[in-house]
């Protein structure tokens, strides 16, 4: 917890720091990448940096952590920390890098706030930073120890399947012929791809195959320029250049959006677009274990033709004794599906339901609001965000 003196200083300065966090994080990244350009080339997502979403996520996490320390001094926001730690572990972040971040972050704070950063203010925010950093280092150390696989490993593509016009599934086996550690349904791996300019960019993709398989399976959606976001460097590279027989570098599986093994708990699995990938893995796991309680499957997509892994989505749900499937399509809805956007008003949600969400942030916010209205406890609604987690920064 924060010391009494630091807590008082952080409370007094949080409004000023919070008001300038976007400027602070922009200056922080500029200074960091000037000093260490290889971090932008080989660690940080260049697309997220260009779009500014990584700055928003960092600002949101700092503000949320500081606020939690003030409002709940006897605890820490473990759910937020675990989410960040899993992402860091998938990237191979090291304890030494936290000192580097500290150096450039505090230089940015001083540069933006100027004389307002007195020694007392600097010391108080230093406490905040190291409380957060040391907690993350400890969680990441445990994750590395539990992963069961080396940090980066070469995997051979043994099959490439076009799921839709913009989604390709890659099935992979270890290039070294070694064993495949199991994963928990809902987890993801990082893929490190060498791009034509020599950069080795890293992206996360959910494991879309069934746990327990001798192969890894990822399903990659090609990210196209949407005006506010550029073409996805890695997704387009994988679509255009990676074929059967090629080798990809993968991390061990990470991610905290995972199924609990309570066979008597009603579940709701809600996805949109490529958010279907972890949900298919979850359904495969539920089918394998013979989950007895009701399972509500909700998915929204642009059209049936854009619904990746639809056959698996339906097949695994069909193996469950008590499953209800609801698909919405913005166009070309077919018999047994619904037209438009996902709307939970007409969906029965059993009491005691635990919900898992994955998809664009507006979709998840809408589904979460609908679930809360139906009496689902906030603590029973879990989510996964592809890319920087902007849930807190836009709350």
TrEMBL record:
Its cofactor is heme b. Its EC number is 1.14.12.17. Residues 150-260 form the FAD-binding FR-type domain. Pfam families: FAD_binding_6, Globin, NAD_binding_1. Residues 1-141 form the Globin domain. Keywords: 2Fe-2S, Heme, Iron, Iron-sulfur, Metal-binding, NAD, NADP, Oxygen transport, Transport. It catalyses: 2 nitric oxide + NADH + 2 O2 = 2 nitrate + NAD(+) + H(+); 2 nitric oxide + NADPH + 2 O2 = 2 nitrate + NADP(+) + H(+). Gene3D superfamilies: Globins, Nucleotide-binding domain of ferredoxin-NADP reductase (FNR) module, Translation factors. Belongs to the globin family. In the C-terminal section; belongs to the flavoprotein pyridine nucleotide cytochrome reductase family. This is nitric oxide dioxygenase. It comes from Streptomyces gilvifuscus.
């Amino acid at each position: 917890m924060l010391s009494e003196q630091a807590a008082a200083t952080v409370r007094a300065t949080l409004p000023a720091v919070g008001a300038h966090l976007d400027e602070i994080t922009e200056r922080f990244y500029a200074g960091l990448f000037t000093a260490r350009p290889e971090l932008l080339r080989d660690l940080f997502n260049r697309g997220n940096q260009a779009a500014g979403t990584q700055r928003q996520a960092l600002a949101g996490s700092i503000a949320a952590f500081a606020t939690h320390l003030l409002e709940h001094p006897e605890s820490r926001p473990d759910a937020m920390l675990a989410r960040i730690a899993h992402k860091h572990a998938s990237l191979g972040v090291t304890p030494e890098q936290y000192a580097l971040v500290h150096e450039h972050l505090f230089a940015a704070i001083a540069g933006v706030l100027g004389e307002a950063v007195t020694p007392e203010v600097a010391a108080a925010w230093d406490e905040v930073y190291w409380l957060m950093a040391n907690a993350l280092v400890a969680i990441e150390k445990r994750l590395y120890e539990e992963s069961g696989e080396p940090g980066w490993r070469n995997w051979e593509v043994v099959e490439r399947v076009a799921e839709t016009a913009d989604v390709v599934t890659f099935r992979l086996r270890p290039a070294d012929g070694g064993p495949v550690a199991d994963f928990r349904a809902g987890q993801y791996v990082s893929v490190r791809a060498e791009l034509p300019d020599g950069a080795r960019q890293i992206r996360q993709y959910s494991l879309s195959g069934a746990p327990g398989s001798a192969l890894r399976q990822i399903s990659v959606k090609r990210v196209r320029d949407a005006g506010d976001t550029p073409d996805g460097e890695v997704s387009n590279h994988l679509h255009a250049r990676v074929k059967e027989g090629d080798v990809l570098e993968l991390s061990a599986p990470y991610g905290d959006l995972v199924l609990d093994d309570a066979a008597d708990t009603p579940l709701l699995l809600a996805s949109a677009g490529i958010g279907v990938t972890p949900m298919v893995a979850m359904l495969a796991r539920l089918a394998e274990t013979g989950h007895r309680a009701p399972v509500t499957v909700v998915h929204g997509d642009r059209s049936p033709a854009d619904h990746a892994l639809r056959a698996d989505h339906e097949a695994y749900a069909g193996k469950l004794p008590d499953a209800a499937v609801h698909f919405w399509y913005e166009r070309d809805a077919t018999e047994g599906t619904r037209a438009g956007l996902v709307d939970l008003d007409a969906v029965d949600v059993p009491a005691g339901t635990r919900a898992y969400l994955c998809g664009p942030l507006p979709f998840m916010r809408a589904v979460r609001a609908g679930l809360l209205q139906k009496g689902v406890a906030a603590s029973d609604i879990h989510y996964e965000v592809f890319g920087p987690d902007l849930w807190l920064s836009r709350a």
